[in-house]
Design a protein that fits this description.
The chain is about 25% helix and about 20% strand. With about 375 residues, the protein is an alpha/beta fold.
């Protein structure tokens, strides 16, 4: 998308000064043979509505262990709070039928301390099978097989549920798991491969997707939640958007999420806020930067959920004296490819783009104006 198109999109909805878009937005060329299916896809039937279920009992802050019974109750109350139904079964039936082929987009990048919780994933699978969805029609997926192997969701799931990845590992350039006819083309830094292709599983097999992100900071996007988990987790060749202190995540995250059929098939967002990462994300190879928001956010609007999550992460950074994710001072930007082993919470290695949430809103993916988000808060 060129700059003039961007301006047309935002006509009548100017961004705040802190959200002023960066100069030189890259031109994005979308190729897809799929049409919009408006019934349930993002932002879904509940735009701007978020069910936030909190419980001090959901996870032990000392051991990091989650309480499966409490998590089950949180999910049940969250679904009913979102839909207004008194029956958990009825709430799930608003989104899924026995004929659906359902993908669960988990987040494995925060292994071992902050991944999509086993307790949440297994309860979702239990609810789907109770509706009549066959285990063989449920796919827990991520991009990289080595990450799926580390997390080993299969050990926690009923026999027949698939554990699927598109390629063996990051930057291994195995394209067989991607759809050659569904992609975004963009030249960010003169890279050789300028295409990001959608996973074949998403475009060719699934009929519905449940997005299960975590609450984490991110060195390029500012935060990574619903939008980035479903977008960067469903396409190839996305790490190229941030390099040597520069980031193009501002426009690319939402643009990927809006590509059909990913947009129409992603019908439910269940944000795992049992644990979070306030620095060094999206990874969590150390528990030094792990914290415990102790909540689950449920909705159909990924933008609204991410808008709330961004405040949670930045508030935690403020509490511990770390830089705000909005800080753009060059003195805090490292131009090398530093790893979390040699950086501290006072340093960002790249300009962050937390405004990608507002950009996604401009594409019609959801509500980013905090004043217009209806938070249905429940504590159990």
């Amino acid at each position: 998308m060129d700059r003039r198109a961007f301006v047309r999109l935002l006509a009548g909805a100017p961004l705040a000064a802190s959200l002023k878009p960066p100069r030189g937005l890259p031109r994005l060329h979308v190729v897809s043979r799929y049409q919009v299916q408006p019934e349930l896809g993002m932002p879904g039937p509940y735009p701007g509505v978020v069910a936030q279920i909190r419980s001090d009992r959901c996870v032990d802050s000392t051991t990091g262990a989650a309480n499966a019974d409490v998590v089950q109750e949180m999910l049940a109350q969250g679904m009913c709070t979102l839909t207004g139904d008194t029956s958990v079964d009825q709430a799930w039936r608003r989104f899924f039928t026995p004929d659906d082929v359902v993908g669960l987009k988990v987040n494995c990048g925060g292994y071992p301390y902050c991944i999509s919780a086993y307790e949440i994933v297994t309860e979702i699978v239990r609810q789907l099978t109770a509706l009549g969805v066959a285990p063989a029609n449920i796919y827990v997926y991520e991009r990289f097989q080595n990450q799926m192997d580390e997390c080993n969701y299969a050990a926690h799931l009923p026999e027949g549920v698939h554990d699927v990845a598109a390629e063996s590992a990051n930057r291994h350039s195995d394209n067989s798991g991607y759809d050659p006819f569904t992609y975004i083309e963009a030249d960010f830094f003169g890279e050789d491969d300028t295409r990001s292709n959608m996973m074949r599983l998403v475009s060719e097999r699934l009929t519905k997707i449940i997005n299960i992100p975590n609450m984490k900071d991110h060195r390029a996007a500012g935060v990574t939640g619903c939008l980035k988990n479903i977008a960067y987790g469903s396409f190839s060749n996305v790490a190229r958007t941030h390099y040597q202190g520069r980031s193009h995540t501002y426009s690319f995250v939402g643009s990927l999420a809006a590509v059909e059929p990913l947009r129409s098939r992603t019908v439910l967002q269940i944000m795992d806020g049992l644990r979070g990462v306030w620095h060094g994300g999206p990874f969590a190879r150390t528990n030094e930067y792990v914290f415990y928001p102790k909540r689950i956010l449920i909705g159909t609007d990924p933008v609204a959920i991410d808008r709330l999550m961004r405040d949670v992460v930045d508030q935690k950074r403020t509490e511990v004296g770390a830089l705000s994710i909005w800080n753009r001072s060059r003195e805090h930007v490292r131009m090398d490819q530093a790893t979390e082993q040699n950086q501290g919470p006072e340093v960002d290695i790249i300009f962050r783009e937390p405004g990608h949430i507002e950009y996604a809103s401009s594409l019609g993916l959801g509500v980013a104006d905090r004043a217009k988000i209806a938070v249905r808060d429940v504590e159990i």
